[in-house]
Amino acid sequence: MQAMSKITTRTVVLENENVDTDQIIPARFLTTTSRAGLGAHAFADWRYEDDGALKADSLFREDARDDFGVLVAGHNFGCGSSREHAPWALLDFGFRAVISTKIADIFTGNALKNGLVPVEVDAATHADLMEQPGVELTIDLEAMRVTTPNGGVDAPFRLEPFARRCLLDGVDPLGAILARDADIAAYEAVHG
User: Fold this and answer.
1) CA–CA separation, 23 vs 44, rounded Å?
2) pLDDT number for residue 133
3) DSSP3 helix / strand / coil % (the chain, rounded to 5)
4) Long-range contacts: 107-110, Cβ < 8 Å, 24+?
5) Strands across the sheet containing 136-140
6) In the chain, pLDDT over 70 holds for what percent of residues?
7) Reported pTM
């Protein structure tokens, strides 16, 4: 994982509500424990025709992948079965964060452990972002705010403190524990 304090990028707006993990990455692609290449299957049923051709009207165009990094999604994003492949696919596709009014708890946990930032905002902020596809915004993990350069959006969000620290430091939970190895050894020497 890469340490991050701010994400500044453009958005893609997915209006659908209740987007489940099988829509994020269909089960037929869960044949690997490697993260590499899963982005090719992110939202596969919405991106490709039955013959494998890219859908002309797909929201997730290959030619725009470098232009966006935040998915603004409808309410209750990431519901359904627990699959770590869903945040892996989104990260490999190019997303760094997901913004919604509600993000499923299990998806949130999997996202945070893998460096995808799940941001829940209030309904008014969400509605504003939904109406502005492609807007540039900043997610500030230090200030815990989502802002747009024009000042139209300036909203707080919350993250669990340990998960936030891991994102800021660029480590997963195990990496955070291993970084405290000397402290753990010192404690064990005294209390062992």
Assistant:
1) 8
2) 92
3) 40, 20, 40
4) 107/21, 107/77, 107/78, 107/79, 107/82, 108/78, 110/82, 110/83, 110/84, 110/86
5) 117-120, 97-100, 68-73, 6-14, 136-140, 145-147, 154-156
6) 97
7) 0.91
Judged by DSSP in three states, 101 sits in coil
DSSP string, 121-187: --HHHHHHHHT-TT-EEEEETTTTEEE-TTSS-EEE----HHHHHHHHHT--HHHHHHTTHHHHHHH
6-191: CATH topology is Aconitase; domain 4 (3.20.19)
Query: Which residue is listed with tokens 């209750």?
Result: 76
Residue type, 130: M
pLDDT tens digits, 130-185: 999 999 999 999 999 999 998 889 999 999 999 999 999 999 888 888 888 888 88
